[in-house]
Fold:
Amino acid sequence: MHDIVDLEMRGVPGVVVASSEFVEAAESQASALGLPARRVFVPHPIQDRTNEEMQALADAALDQIMEALRKA
Structure:
């Protein structure tokens, strides 16, 4: 979240991509940092997924990520 906030403050649009386990944490951090960073959440967990599974998650989230960037 800190990286996205830093990028946004420099004028570079960004999107936080995290697993669904971190929805509340992302909202809390965005609020504490004072910037409602755009966020996209993918199904949890991700740590034990294969490269192919991670690619599928990324492919499935791409439209949401691009839409969030267009709102920048």
Remarks:
- The chain has one domain: 2-70.
- Strands lie at 16-19, 39-42.
- Residues 13 and 72 are 6 Å apart (CA to CA).
- Residues 2-70 form one domain.
